[in-house]
UniProtKB/TrEMBL annotation:
The gene is gatA. Heterotrimer of A, B and C subunits. Allows the formation of correctly charged Gln-tRNA(Gln) through the transamidation of misacylated Glu-tRNA(Gln) in organisms which lack glutaminyl-tRNA synthetase. The reaction takes place in the presence of glutamine and ATP through an activated gamma-phospho-Glu-tRNA(Gln). Residues 1-476 form the Amidase domain. Gene3D superfamilies: Amidase signature (AS) domain (3.90.1300.10). It holds the Pfam family Amidase. This is Glutamyl-tRNA(Gln) amidotransferase subunit A. Belongs to the amidase family. GatA subfamily. InterPro entries: Amidase, Amidase_CS, Amidase_dom, AS_sf, GatA. It catalyses: L-glutamyl-tRNA(Gln) + L-glutamine + ATP + H2O = L-glutaminyl-tRNA(Gln) + L-glutamate + ADP + phosphate + H(+).
Length: 483
């Protein structure tokens, strides 16, 4: 009842939820209460959660905040949802996001932007902006988000909550709508490191339905969050404390590091020389994968379908106009018109074009065009092939650094939450926000953002710890030390 009241009160201002089902949540709460009473309840009994609208929940809408999937309903539960349900979590609603998880401000949503609960004139970050804002405004205890290039950690930093991106392959992607399949990860956003650990414990682990799911045993995440070691080795990369970083955030993060050192941690300088290519590399590879993944929305098998009669009408009119021109044209012009007539779309192709034109927003279209470009013959080696090689170099940088340290630290984002609308027309500026978070996705390693301060502008900011693959206990440990 508390969370229902919070949602009724806060959501009209924040716009974090795009759909809620209070009746179902109440019924579920009663069932769980019975289980609690007779001692058979699961690990997340009574934990009220919201789910990013990119993860399938049977019988619920799955829109990805896109007009393309406006009326699509999930026919099965994602593995993470099945696991949450088995442990008696209460799923209360679906959370707003950037369309198809593409963005860093949650402004590219068919449902309108999410507002930062700390200041409604600011963005909450993205793409899991709804997931971060819902926790920050106490509209859920924990939420699930997805992180392809920073989308859990960056909004966590902007909204002052904890956000954890697991190692690629640690949490099943089965039932997560694909954006960039070699990057996509599901993870929790929470009020505390321990809460994040409790959810991770439930959702992590091998799943035969995801062929990139790892067989490596999971560790005791809750224990790690409850019993942090103080004498850890923390790598400090120069590359992440340089130009573009807000001075106050830099000072704040350095102060946290001094405190950690005073408490027994060892600070070790590390080098990550290729991370400066992270953003460029990511935006080549992620758009390439996206262009392929999003080809399925053809308005035939999935997604928004343009009005057929209107489309046929349009096509007929074009044909008629061309034929009329042909009649009166002469010479070269006649040949040109003839060529146009020959190239006129078939009805099926036109339906596909029109459906996608209407169904996708501008940012998604931009990504599809970029992605198809870098994959096209003649450019593939120069862009896609090259980016794959740089991705390997970035992975190698981390591998080398982790030989000497437990975790690597950085600010989560270079600034606090920015003004709504201020970067919407400048995609490059928007992409630059991901500078500290994106290389963990390229390397496939795990990372956490934990709030550590409030800027003089009144907004929160986070610190990020990343650790090698399947070393989630190390980021939970470090995260807990700075809480
Ligand atoms: N900002 C990044 C992008 O737009 C992150 C997306 C994500 O992690 N889902 O691609």
């Amino acid at each position: 009842e508390h969370y229902i009241r919070q949602i009724e009160d806060q959501n009209p201002k924040v716009n974090a939820y795009v759909d809620t089902d209070f009746d179902a949540a109440r019924t579920r709460a009663e069932e769980v209460q019975k289980k609690i009473d007779n001692g058979t309840s699961g690990k997340l009994a009574g934990v009220v959660m919201g789910i990013k609208d990119v993860i399938s929940e049977r019988g619920k809408k799955l829109t990805c905040a896109s007009k393309m999937l406006e009326s699509f309903e999930s026919v099965y539960d994602a593995t993470v949802i099945e696991r949450l349900k088995n442990e008696d979590a209460i799923l209360i609603g679906r959370l707003n996001m950037d369309e198809f998880a593409m963005g860093s401000a949650n402004e590219y949503s068919n449902f309108g932007p999410v507002k930062n609960p700390h200041d409604p004139t600011k963005v909450p970050g993205g793409s899991s902006g709804g997931s971060a804002a819902a926790v920050a405004a106490d509209m859920a205890m924990v939420t699930l988000g997805s992180d392809t290039g920073g989308s859990i950690r960056q909004p966590a930093s902007y909204c002052g909550v904890v956000g954890l991106k697991p190692t690629y392959g640690r949490v099943s992607r089965y039932g997560l709508v694909a954006f960039a399949s070699s990057f996509d990860c599901i993870g929790p956003l929470a009020h505390s490191v321990e809460d994040a650990a409790r959810v991770l414990e439930v959702i992590a682990g091998f799943d035969e339905m995801d062929n990139t799911s790892s067989q490596i045993e999971k560790e005791d995440y809750v224990y790690a969050a409850q019993n942090p070691r103080k004498n850890i080795k923390i790598g400090v990369p120069d590359e992440f404390f340089g130009e573009g970083l807000d001075e106050e955030i830099k000072t704040g993060v350095n102060k946290v590091l001094e405190d950690l050192e005073a408490d027994g941690a060892e600070l070790v300088p590390v080098k990550l020389p290729h991370t400066k290519y992270g953003i460029a590399t990511y935006y080549v590879l992620a758009t390439a994968e996206a262009s392929s993944n999003l080809a399925r929305y053809d308005g035939i098998r999935y997604g928004h379908r343009a009005d057929k009669d209107e489309m046929l009408d349009e096509l007929k009119k074009e044909e008629k106009a061309l034929k009329e021109q042909f009649e009166i044209a002469e010479g070269d012009a006649k040949v040109e018109i003839q060529e146009k007539l020959a190239k006129l779309d078939t009805p099926l192709i036109r339906l596909y074009k029109k459906s996608r034109t209407e169904g996708f927003g501008d940012e998604v279209k931009r990504r599809i065009m970029l992605g198809t470009y870098v994959l096209s013959a003649g450019y593939y080696d120069a862009y896609y092939g090259k980016a794959q090689k740089v991705r390997r170099l970035i992975q190698d940088d981390y591998k080398e650094a982790f030989k000497n340290v437990d975790v690597i630290v950085s600010p989560t984002a270079p600034t606090t939450a920015f003004e709504l609308g201020s970067k919407q027309d400048d995609p490059i500026q928007m992409y630059l926000n991901d500078v500290y978070t994106i290389s963990a996705n390229l390397a496939g390693i795990c990372g956490i953002s934990v709030p550590v301060g409030t800027h003089s502008n009144g907004l929160p900011y986070g610190i990020q710890f990343v650790a090698d693959s399947f070393q989630e206990t190390k980021i939970l440990n470090a995260g807990r030390l700075v809480e």
